[in-house]
Amino acid sequence: MTGNFLYYDFSKAVNELELPQTPLENAIRKTVNYYRENGII
Hints:
The protein is 51% helix and 0% strand. The chain is mainly α. The chain has one domain (1-41). The protein is flat.
């Protein structure tokens, strides 16, 4: 790695497009449930 860090700001998407922000815990829970339901894990 080069030591460069990339930072992203999603405020424009949230403010202008009114996209919701999902809390990380909820996103992980939904992903794990999807994987289980589809036999991935």
